[in-house]
Design a protein that fits this description.
Rossmann fold; 27% strand; globular; seven-stranded mixed β-sheet; alpha/beta; 192 residues; 7 strands
């Protein structure tokens, strides 16, 4: 059993029981459009929120236990979300396109070697003009707690060919373990 699946035996610190406020604000501002793929959806709070707001939503995660919990929540709330167990490095296996892709906490877990594989797979499922939104730990967060920190430059270099970066702005990654969540980057990136 991998780290993430075992983390869902309890409640991991990133599972706050509601969507991140940054993603709620993206919906309120009209930035989330069309069909949505929530990558690394965990127990489904973002996917379920998008579905509640009327979007056609799919959620994928590599942790079977997280997907099971997401499916149980969808059934209990009567929300039509298609959840499936899938590695984010194999998105092309979905064999369909989305207008929007969201990522709350996945990108900063990818190794340097996995990033280009992920970006290639993301391009396979995101329609031209579609947007990818990343919420990831920022290098402005002091070392110690949590995952690897990501610099603006790393985001820019990962999405330099075939993509347009709309913005990379400071944000907060809400957490169950800290009142003031860690510093993060919220990025909006369009597929050309």
């Amino acid at each position: 059993m991998d780290f993430f699946d075992s983390a869902y035996r309890g409640t991991p610190p990133w599972d706050i029981g509601r969507p991140q406020k940054e993603f709620v604000e993206l919906v309120q501002s009209g930035e989330i459009t069309g069909s949505v793929l929530d990558i690394g959806c965990g127990t489904g709070e973002h996917a379920l929120f998008f579905a509640q707001e009327g979007y056609d939503v799919w959620g994928i995660d590599s942790a079977p236990l997280a997907i099971q919990k997401a499916q149980e929540k969808a059934a209990a709330r009567g929300l039509p979300v298609h959840f499936c167990v899938l590695n984010a490095l194999e998105l092309s296996l979905l064999n369909r396109k989305f207008n929007t892709a969201t990522d709350s906490g996945l990108f900063h877990t990818l190794s340097d070697q996995d990033r280009p594989v992920f970006v290639h797979n993301l391009a396979a499922v995101l329609s031209p003009g579609g947007k990818y939104f990343i919420l990831c730990f920022s290098n402005e967060e002091p070392d110690g707690y949590g995952p690897r920190r990501i610099t603006k430059r790393e985001i820019q270099e990962s999405f330099c060919e075939g993509w347009s970066i709309n913005y990379i702005r400071p944000a907060t990654f809400e957490s169950r373990t800290r009142a003031q969540g860690p510093r993060a980057w919220l990025s909006s990136i369009s597929r050309k």
